[in-house]
Write a structure and sequence with these properties.
mainly alpha, 90 residues, single chain
Length: 90
Amino acid sequence: MHIDFITIMAYAFGLFLLYLVGRIMIMPLKILLKLIYNAIIGGIVLLILNFIGGYVGIHLALNAVTALVVGFFGVPGIIMLLILKYILAV
C-alpha cells in the first residue's frame, strides 16, 4: 500500500477546512449565548429593581424598548435607563 504525498496533503487540507467551517459556525452561537445570558441577568435585575424600587420610588417600565436595551447591554443597560429616566424627567 503506497500513499502519495499529495493524498496526505489533500487530507490535511480537508481537515483544515473542516476546522475553519466549525469555527465559523460556533462564533454566532457564542454571541447568541452571550446575548441570552445578558437578557436573563438583566431581566432578573429589572424585576428585582421594580419590586424593591416600588418602596423607594424607583421604577422602570417593562416594554419592548427597555427589554431590548436590557437584553443587549444587561445590567449596564438598566443603569443607563435609570440615568436617562431621571435626566429626561427634569
